[in-house]
Each structure stands twice: as structure tokens, then as C-alpha cells.
Amino acid sequence: xxxxxxxxxxxxxxxxxxxxxLIPALDVLYSRNxxxxxxxxxxxxxxxxxxxxxxxxxHVSEKFAQRIYYHQFFSGxxxxxxxxxxxxxxxxxxxxxxxxxxxxxxxxYEEGFRNGVSIVIEKPFGYDLQSAKKLDKxxxxxxxxxxxxxxxxxxAKEAVQNxxxxxxxxxxxxxxxxSRFIESIQINxxxxxxxxxxxxxxxSAGIIRDMIQNHLLQLLAxxxxxxxxxxxxxxxRIQKINLLKTVSIEECFRYQYExxxxxxxxxxxSDTETLAExxxxxxNFRWATTPVxxxxxxxxxxxxxxxxxxxxxxxxxxxxxxxxxxxxxxIFKIQPAEGIVVDISTRAPGTxxxxxxxxxxxxxxxxxxxxxxxxxxxxLMDVLKGDHTxxxxxxxxxxxxxxxxNILDKGELTLYxxxxxxxxxTDASWIDFDKYSNLCMY
Length: 442
Ligand code: BG6
Fold this sequence. Notes:
Layout: E1 6-11, H1 16-31, E2 40-45, H2 51-56, H3 62-65, E3 68-72, H4 77-82, E4 89-94, H5 101-110, E5 117-122, H6 129-142, E6 148-151, H7 158-168, E7 182-190, H8 199-205, H9 207-224, H10 233-245, E8 247-257, E9 275-282, E10 292-297, E11 304-311, E12 329-335, E13 339-347, E14 355-363, H11 364-367, H12 375-385, E15 391-392, H13 394-404, E16 413-416
Parallel strand pairs: 1-2, 1-4, 2-3, 4-5, 5-6, 7-10, 8-16
Antiparallel strand pairs: 6-15, 7-11, 8-9, 9-10, 11-12, 12-13, 13-14
The chain binds 6-O-phosphono-beta-D-glucopyranose.
């Protein structure tokens, strides 16, 4: 069903997010007829633009450009929108620095944006537990929770959405998804890139706030939560929260790449971490004896996000008499290419009883050639439909901050060389994820 009679407002409309992500995504949705002509896009901000000037700052189809307008400041914005037509929904995207969220919500509320309005905000949702609670309190004094959409773009990744399908529609794996069979869970999200042009933001955040508090804890929750009673957003959120409440951090190690302090916007004395390794525990009946390891960082030797589920060893008899047999693994390849690899032992043909590693692969892009929406296209469509499934709730963000509360900015920093992965300090026997990087390529 195409979206009708919707006004999409972008605050901070002359910024990067509007130019790089939002307007291009809306252009695609419009060209695919997912958004009707009865919808409009209104940019707003402090800078003065005419509609024509504003339209010309984007590379979009001429037809879509005609649906785009600009209004300077919030004052009079509601009347401006009403002068363009009758809209059943108004979706307001905060393409703004997070420090502006609270006052923007208040200003919009005072301008009369209330019922029939949704607001969309990007991470970071707070800086720690206390500030997250304060932000939630402010936002909820203007809008109720069902009007607020908090983006975690990882949830919109196809390979992330596939985790629940893999778990809850394959009885093959369901019985073994617990501590009895699984030795460890390993989440690896590394990037070759340094902090690029985002020094000021990154230096005040660090990789734990930037990646673990949101994206990686969400991955962990989807991978290990109990089955929801339905696929409703609320039922899924309940299970994610229940899981996150049981997690504790056993160890946390912070690292910084050499030369980080010389990056633009970074304090020359900075002790912000650019890479972190953690060992966590899930204190529930299903997972209590399976450690979870998380490793994420910038400026390492490759870019890739994977989740590895490592099964226990077979007994040291028969083919594993010498204890050398590699363990089964399920590798969820989140990116750059999406897929699932099941790593199994097979007989090397023609040998006495040599064992090979063999990979059973599902590579998403080999199996599907249709249109696969990019994360922002998917998220925008869901906001316009009012579907919260791929968005995080206030309770989820608070429980994640709570989990990290004692370790943020704590502990000494170890330096590592740009372009290399530092040796880990937890007792993890890390899966060699590089080994799977040439499976499923596009
Ligand atoms: C963002 C972080 O949320 O996610 C960035 O702020 C990080 O630092 C990015 O690079 C990773 O996203 P993706 O989709 O490239 O894995």
C-alpha cells in the first residue's frame, strides 16, 4: 500500500543526513510509487532558502523535486504545511545534533505539533544512563512513546532481520541454541576506516557508545532472546529487554590506534577508545554458561561485521582422539555481503580418515536479484506506515546504558597500530572471521 497524504518534515534540512541519506531514500521510494503525489517533503532550518534553491541542492528527479518545499524556522511551520494540503500524518525527522533534540521537541510541541505527528531521532540517545533518562523524560513530556521512532540502522539491515527468521523458522537449530551445545558467541564489527571527518563527535563518544550500546547489543538480543509471542513490535521489544536485563559485563578492554590523538577534532590528550573487546555473561537458564565476546573497532585490517556461534567440541574419541578437530560454527555475515555459513567437518575424499572444513553457504545476493531496500529506505517506509518493529524503545536504550554504566570511560588504554587488529585480552579463542570473508561476495 503506497503512502498517502503524509507530510515529511526534515529539521536541519541543509545538513549531511538530509543530503546523503534522507532525500535520496525518499526519491527512490517516490520513484517506486511507494509514496504518492499527495505527500510532501518540507525542509526546515535556520538558513534562508527559497523552495527552488532548496530543491536545487539535491540530485533528485524533477517530479519528486516539485514535492519538496522549504520553510525557515519552526515558527509558522504548521500553517505552512497546512497551506500545502490536507495531511493525515506528519512525520518529523530530527536531522540534528543530539544536543538539539530536547529543545526541538519542545519547540515543535509549542508550535502545535501534537496528535497525528511522529518524530524520528537518530542515535546517540543520550551519553550515559542519566542523560538517556533525561532525554526520554523530555521527549515524553511532548510526545508519547508510540509517536517516537528511534533509529538503529543495524535493525534495518537485511542480514540482521534474517537472524530472527533463521532462529524461529528452522527447527534444525532451535534445540541446540543454548549453553548445552554452544561454547561461545562472538560478535565482531570492525572497520578499516579511521574516524574520518567525525573527530569531534567520536572523541566525545568512543567506540563503546558509538557501536556497542546500540548496534551490537541489539544484535546480541536478537540472537539470544526467547521467542516472542508474536511478531508485533511490542512483543519483540519485550523479549529483547528481558534478555538485555540478564546481561552483565565480565571484562572490558579498551584500545586506541596510534595517531588517533592527531586526528582533526580530537583532544591531544584524549583517552577515548577506538576499539574495545568485552566478555559478557547472559544470566539466564538458556545461556548462563556460554560467554559472549564482543569486539569492535576502527582502523583495523579489514571491514566486516559477523556473528559467530561456536559449538562445543565433540568428545575426544574417534575423529577427535587428538583433540584437534575444529568445532562447528554458524557464521552470520552481516556485511559487507550478507549470508550465513555453517562450518562443518567432512571427510577428505581418498584419504585414510582426514577431515576437511566444509562450508554450507547461504549468500543472500546470489539467491535474490530483486529490489533490496537500503536501510534508510526501509526505515523511512516503516515510519510512514507507523511500524515500530525496526526501531528501539526508550526502555531498550535505558537498559543498554544501564549495562554499560560501570565501564564507560574506565580502564587503561592499549595502543595498536593502524591497519592491524590488536591481540585480544579476554580468554576468547576468537573465530578467524577473515577466513569467511571470501564466501558470499558481491
Ligand atoms: C554508526 C557509527 O552508527 O555506524 C559509525 O556512528 C559506524 O561510527 C557506523 O562506522 C557503522 O555502520 P555500518 O552500517 O557501516 O556498519
